[in-house]
Design brief:
Elements: E1 14-19, E2 24-27, E3 30-32, H1 39-50, E4 54-59, E5 70-74, H2 78-88, E6 93-96, E7 103-105, E8 126-128, H3 132-137, E9 146-153, H4 157-168, E10 172-177, E11 189-190, E12 192-196, E13 199-202, E14 206-207, H5 208-224
Parallel strand pairs: 1-4, 1-6, 4-5, 6-9, 9-10
Antiparallel strand pairs: 2-3, 7-8, 10-12, 11-14, 12-13
Bound molecules: cytidine-5'-triphosphate (CTP) and calcium ion.
Length: 226
């Protein structure tokens, strides 16, 4: 940590990062998931560690190697991810990049669901998953000082993301454009709008590694003054 070009301005800080999708079991062989690659979260974890932070990276299933000097906590489901995040506290800051499945199967089958000749397809009843970001950002003695969320949005991105920031009580939201010609999910670039209490800052389209560097630098400034 603290090597390369980055100054060690996060030395002594602990930062919690979530990344990747979650996998919600339907039965022992099937799950609900999404196309999150985990790349942005892993890049952020690496950038924070290079500035000297102790980083706990709670990650859903991805095809990535954890960056050097990062404490990786692999999880599968949203409930696992929430437990791992709470266990990682206290932290000075939290960055929630995970694409947490909004729903899980209400009662996963213990046995593999099999086709029955002539029978209709099975219905899968869903139930809401816990909101990890909102839980971590809720006021309380163990709330990290700086809580950052991500929002992949279509349509009126600024307004939707600003509403999300207030609803989840996080400090910053990094909103990025998805759909309509963009290839953010799984792609290498992100187009970020940083939403804070002060307003919206539009960042130019840049590689996910550059987004990570810029965010880590901003976080170091924010955490420096106390
Ligand atoms: N998030 C989370 N736990 C959830 C859902 C979302 O921690 N169960 C976090 C994500 O990691 C992200 C932020 O909340 O930092 C926004 O995720 P998003 O899916 O945009 O928000 P939702 O509240 O799920 O809203 P939507 O219905 O638009 O998906
Ligand atoms: Ca969601």
């Amino acid at each position: 940590a603290g090597d390369g070009a980055a100054p060690p301005d996060l030395a002594g800080r602990h930062v919690l990062v979530t990344a990747g999708p979650t996998h919600e079991p339907i039965d022992p062989v099937r799950f609900l998931g999404n196309r999150s690659s985990g790349r942005q979260g892993y890049a952020i974890a690496g950038a924070l560690a290079r500035r000297g932070a102790r980083v706990t990276l709670v990650s859903g299933p991805v095809a990535l190697i954890a960056p050097p000097a990062v404490d990786l906590v692999p999880v599968q489901t949203a409930e696992d991810m929430l437990r791992a995040c709470l266990a990682a506290l206290p932290a000075d800051a939290a960055v929630m990049t995970a694409a947490v499945a909004d729903w899980r199967a209400a009662s996963p089958n213990v046995l593999k669901i099999r086709k029955v000749p002539g029978a209709p397809p099975p219905a899968i009843a869903l139930t809401l998953n816990p909101d990890i970001l909102a839980t971590i950002a809720a006021p309380g003695p163990s709330r990290p000082r700086l809580v950052v969320g991500f929002a992949a949005e279509t349509g009126d991105l600024r307004e939707t993301a600003a509403a999300k920031r207030l609803r989840k009580r996080c400090d910053w939201i990094l909103a990025n454009e998805v759909g309509a010609g963009s290839d953010v999910m799984g792609g290498t670039d992100n187009e970020i709008h940083l939403i804070t209490e002060a307003g919206t800052e539009d960042w130019p389209r840049m590689p996910k590694d550059a987004v990570a560097e810029k965010l880590a630098a901003r976080m170091a400034v924010e955490l420096a003054d106390r």
